[in-house]
Amino acid sequence: MHGGSELELRDVEVFLALADELHFGRTAERLHITQARVSQVIRKLERSTGATLFERTTRTVRLTPIGRRLRDDLAHARDLFQDALVRANCSARGVGAALRVGVLGAMGHEIRPLIEEFKSRHDGGEVQLIESRLSDPFGLVRADEVDAQILWLPVQETDLIVGPVVMTERRVLAVPADSELAVLDSVTWEQLDDHLVADLGSPAPPYWVEALTPRRTPNGRLVKRGPTARTLQEVLALVADGKVVSPLPQHSTRYFPYPGITYVPLRDAPSTQWALVWSSTTDRSGVVRAFARVAEELGSPSA
Amino acid sequence: MHGGSELELRDVEVFLALADELHFGRTAERLHITQARVSQVIRKLERSTGATLFERTTRTVRLTPIGRRLRDDLAHARDLFQDALVRANCSARGVGAALRVGVLGAMGHEIRPLIEEFKSRHDGGEVQLIESRLSDPFGLVRADEVDAQILWLPVQETDLIVGPVVMTERRVLAVPADSELAVLDSVTWEQLDDHLVADLGSPAPPYWVEALTPRRTPNGRLVKRGPTARTLQEVLALVADGKVVSPLPQHSTRYFPYPGITYVPLRDAPSTQWALVWSSTTDRSGVVRAFARVAEELGSPSA
DNA sequence: TGCATTGATAACTCGCGCTTATCGAGATGA
DNA sequence: TCATCTCGATAAGCGCGAGTTATCAATGCA
After folding, report:
1. Least CB–CB distance from B92: residue in A51, A73, A144
2. How far apart (Å, rounded) are the C-alpha atoms in residues A83 and A95?
3. B88 vs A77: CB contact, 8 Å cut-off?
4. Model confidence over B222-239: pLDDT tens digits?
5. What is the distance between the alpha carbons of residues A154 and A162, in angstroms, rounded to a whole number?
6. A with B: how many residue pairs have Cβ under 8 Å apart?
7. What is the pTM of this model?
8. Where are the domains of chain B?
């Protein structure tokens, strides 16, 4: 017998996240709360069910059979819950209420399976793709001109929520067709020596730009930045014009077979992860999360 | 775009209650919150879905089609949600974890259909009936010796939650077999004149005792109280002994065919409603609410 | 036209959700 | 076996949002 603190959805989210991560610290990080809070919520849940849901030592966290069952049950209930809200939202906004998703370049084509799946699951759900500028990757979400945005990671903005990864792919280097690099089977960062890469201009934050085009080569040599390009088309124009070379996600090769451009695999570049990102203050978090959930279930195809 | 106040289960309960009552004031009363709060929660929900869920004037509240659909969806999700917790609770506590329900007299037999339905819906759910004293109707719940208690209404205790009505029935008057009242087809309160009724003793609160045995007749004459009886058996013994007469719920006639007692229908008594009641600070509100939900769906048979 | 009822809204307050700070238990390695 | 690191539990305190009180405007009814 004690104060009747009711269980809330927020608590369930914590439980489900922990059941997924099996790690208090990472769970906390993922939900943008503290590890202490995760601990408290789980304790509360175990109190109210009367069951031990996780076997935990300081080194391992494991679901008990009851915990596993509860995870399945609650995940299902939670899904229905969100679906109900999404349905209301869709019927309310009608046809003109497409989910507005910001994309860079051709990503809109790449995530077509995701969009199709979302539309088939949520009757009446529409998705509108809006291209955003490389130079201002967070502008559209922040201005509420899109409900969500697909961006390469990392994204470290306190006002943005980073959702599931929707695609993972290797990188290529776009080089002028007449460059000496164009004839190679593959290149390394080191070979960017003496070549300029396009600058994306503000307000794109440096850490984000450098995730695609590092400031230094593995050996520590500075990569020189050249003229500014605000969109992918501008980047491609500069490359075709022989002004710069530019690391790009691999899928670009399929969509932009520019005459003057050759794409060469970047051998030593880690693969690029594209994630769905949205504002923590969005009005339509229900629909956005539903979209995110579909993405999560589909997994992230490696293109 | 605004502060991302997430939707919580508490809010859904308010919505579902309002969808049921279609009246802000009554909804507030039922949930033990203020009418203002109901208004705020509904506004929040309508904001976050973007839909008008209720058509309302100051005189009428009506569900919109979207609201109706949302009610069905959310009610279903909410049920799954609670079921998940109940299941965890049942597996955790195992066989020795019966839901302990306090009853007065033979109510335990009367609600057998309810108990069967509960057991069939919640695998492993057991119900243990515990008889409580008429003289201390709230004692067992407060001492956490039962998880819930079945009592006649009204129950006005700030620390207790009044759940669904499980039965509605007429009243009879138990009279000694040799009383002049025993030969009548029915009696009225007025005819209690010159007869004593049993006193239930403390700590039973007067308002609750008087719901069964009013202090005054409709014409305003005082009903005299006689010797104290703490349990139903004691009441019956006093009646059989010719000491008192006693208004009782009708089902008593089926279970206590005492040789010395005759039951006469009470013509002008309003029917008695039996409701499930539990402590607002119970540890097992999940299971209790699940039981309450089954009761709600079965409705209250008029015996 | 007053009177009663009902839902909406503004302003305030206090409990609880969440934080920061710290601890003890294991694991790892020299 | 001692120093160090990681990880989860816990205590104490803070701040915001859930819920309150007070009041208003609209509507129905005599």
Report:
1. A51
2. 18
3. no
4. 888 888 888 888 888 888
5. 9
6. 141
7. 0.74
8. 1-93, 94-168+273-298, 171-270
